[in-house]
Amino acid sequence: MTPSNDFIPEITIFTCIYCGYMAADTAGSLRLEYPSNIKIVRLPCTGKTDIQYLLNAFEEGADGVYIVACSLGNCHHEHGNERGLARMKRTREILERIGLEPERLDMFFVSGGMGATFAKVAHEMNERIQQLGPNPLKQAPPAPSPPQPPPAPS
Question: 11-132: what fold?
Answer without folding.
Answer: Rossmann fold (3.40.50)
